[in-house]
Amino acid sequence: MGKYTGKKAVVIGGTAGIGLATVQALLEGGAEVLLTGQTESNLEAARRELGSQAHVVRSDAASLADINALGRLVEEKLGQVDFVFINAGFCKLEPFEQVTEAIYDQTFGVNTKGVYFTVQRLAPLVHEGGSFLFMTSVADELGYPTLSVFSGSRAAVRSFARVLAAELLPRQIRVNAVSPGFIRTPTMGIYGASEEEVTAFVKEGEEITPMKRIGSLDEITQAVLFLGFDATFTTGAELPVDGGLSQL
Question: Is residue 245 part of a domain?
């Protein structure tokens, strides 16, 4: 039996990067997982790669209609669940004077509105003693140029973790956040990034991170699963996984 045999999990934004790595670790541990994404190529790749324990669903994290439909599907496919990881996010590097209303609305729609209403819809489906985990970022603490809108959206999610942890205490549902620094993913978390921009972002991460390297998918996935299942006396917290970037 695997570590997560008998467990049921939902991963919002699970078709690439940190989300997909988390799904793979959960499946390897024996869990049944429902994951969402929006990019059709990523959805198809996930369907081909993942086994029958994975339910791959197209869902817009910023759409209330999709969130409501997702709740019905989770109930149909999984019933009650043990863990919900809300990983979907949108980040575009823009100097503040170039930020448009459309970029602002898209960033807050996915990163903030989507998080809040996904918890509202799925909380009744989480077992007593289960957990939610939010993806935040070192950007919610650091004054990083070109990330003003993204930073604000992630700071809001950090506050959600505290308040929703308090609201869900009567059901012993834990709510935490994981805050990554530079983590090696295909896009480094930046929407529309070119290969050159990704390379430059990696180089910058290696230079400014106190540990002088960027993190691996395995390192962030271990933190996600620790908060999701093992940290049974932790709620309302944000765990930095950033090589000391936000701490030193």
Answer: no
Which contacts qualify for 229-234: CB closer than 8 Å, 24 or more apart? 229/4, 229/7, 229/82, 229/83, 229/131, 231/174, 231/176, 232/174, 234/174, 234/176
Whether 208 maps to a domain, the answer reads yes
DSSP category for residue 103: H
pLDDT number for residue 237: 98
Handedness of CA 65, 69, 72, 75 (dihedral sign): negative
Buried b (16+ CB within 10 A) or exposed e, 9-19: bbbbbbbbbbb
For residue 246, is it within any domain?
A: no
Contact 178, 133 (CB under 8 A): yes
Residue 160 covered by a domain: yes
Greater pLDDT, 91 or 68: 68
**Spatial CB neighbours of 205, under 8 Å, sequence gap ≥ 6:** 181, 182, 188, 214
* Residue 215 DSSP label: B
Picking from 94-98, 148-152, 196-200, 233-237, which range would have the lowest pLDDT averaged per residue? 196-200
Return the SS3 of 4.
Answer: coil
User: At 44, which CATH number?
Assistant: 3.40.50.720
Which residue range forms the structural domain that includes residue 145?
A: 8-238
H-helix or E-strand containing 245?
Answer: none
Provide the domain count of the chain: 1
Distance CA(39)–CA(36), nearest Å, equals 10
3-class secondary structure, 94: coil
Angle made by CA atoms 46, 33, 216, in degrees to the nearest 5: 65
- Residue for token digits 């990696």? 202
